[in-house]
Design a protein that fits this description.
The structure is a single chain. This protein is of the alpha/beta class and about 230 residues long. It is built from 7 helices and 10 strands. About 30% of the residues lie in helices and about 30% in strands. The strands form 2 sheets. A 6-stranded mixed sheet has the order 6-7-8-3-9-10, sandwiched between helices. The chain has a 4-stranded antiparallel sheet with strand order 2-1-4-5, covered by helices on one side. β9 and β10 (about 210-215) form a beta hairpin.
C-alpha cells in the first residue's frame, strides 16, 4: 500500500526527517509515537504532499508519489485529518460534509447517508454550525469529511488532543468500525498511547526524524515506551 524509503524533509534549510523507512500494508493501521518535535506531524504533511520531499522515495499502491502535489495524492486515495482541524465554523455540519464532496476524486465518493453510517453521533448535529460543536464532535466531523472520498489510506494527526476520555473512546470505536467495514489503511500520530494501542496493529517510534524502533500494542503502556532500546 504505502512504502517509504529514506524519506527526508523539513522546513526550508531545517531538516526534520532524516531518512524515514517503513511500510503500511493494505488494511493495516500503524501508529506514530514519539516526543513532541520528533517529526510525526512533519512526516504526515510530507506524505500528504504539503511539505516537499528533499530526498527519498514514497510509493503508494505501486506508484511513485514523492513529487506529486497534495491534490493528486488525494485523488489517488490518500486522506488527511490535520491536527486541530475543525472545518469551516460558520457552516453547518451538513454543509461542511457537502463541501468536502465537491473536490475532484478519481474514486467513487460516498453519499452523505453512507458517511453518517460511520458516524451516527453526527446525524442530530447536521443543522448545527460546526463552530458550535464540542472538540470531540469537531474531530468526528473532520473524520467524516475525510471519509467522503473513500480514501484507501488516511493520515490522522493528534485526533485526541484536548478531547475528553469518553469521546476519545468513541473516536477509537469509530476507527475500529471503519477498519471492519472497509479496506482502509491508517497512519495515526497521537500522544495518547492508550488510544494508539486500541486503534493500531503496531507503532513506529520516531526520534530526531528517524524510525528507531517498532512497538507492539502490549508495550505501549510501559514507562519507557518512548525511549529507544
Amino acid at each position: 500500500m504505502l512504502e517509504v524509503s529514506d524519506l527526508k524533509s523539513g522546513y526550508g534549510p531545517v531538516e526534520v526527517l532524516r531518512g524515514v523507512d517503513f511500510v503500511v500494508g493494505s488494511g493495516e493501521s500503524i501508529g506514530l509515537i514519539g516526543y513532541n518535535g520528533m517529526g510525526k506531524t512533519t512526516l504526515l504533511k510530507t506524505l500528504m504532499g504539503l511539505l516537499p520531499t528533499t530526498s527519498g522515495k514514497t510509493s503508494f499502491d505501486g506508484q511513485s508519489i514523492e513529487k506529486r502535489p497534495a491534490h493528486i495524492r488525494s485523488r489517488l486515495g490518500i486522506g488527511y485529518t490535520p491536527q486541530g482541524n475543525s472545518g469551516f465554523p460558520a457552516l453547518t455540519v451538513a454543509e461542511n460534509l457537502r463541501l468536502a464532496g465537491l473536490a475532484p476524486s478519481a474514486r467513487p465518493k460516498r453519499t452523505l447517508d453512507e458517511v453518517l453510517g460511520f458516524f451516527p453521533r453526527l446525524k442530530p448535529l447536521l443543522s448545527r454550525p460546526s463552530g458550535a460543536l464540542s472538540g470531540g464532535e469537531r474531530q468526528l466531523m473532520a473524520l467524516a469529511r475525510a471519509m467522503v472520498h473513500a480514501p484507501r489510506l488516511i493520515l490522522l494527526d493528534e485526533l485526541t488532543e484536548g478531547i475528553q476520555p469518553s469521546i476519545t473512546d468513541e473516536i477509537a470505536e469509530c476507527l475500529t468500525d471503519l477498519r471492519k467495514r472497509t479496506d482502509i489503511s491508517m497512519l495515526i500520530a497521537d500522544q495518547d498511547l492508550s488510544f494508539v494501542a486500541s486503534t493500531t496493529d503496531r507503532a513506529l517510534l520516531l526520534q530526531k526524524g528517524k524510525v528507531v524502533a517498532t512497538r507492539e500494542n502490549g508495550e505501549l503502556m510501559h514507562d519507557d515506551v518512548l525511549e529507544a532500546a
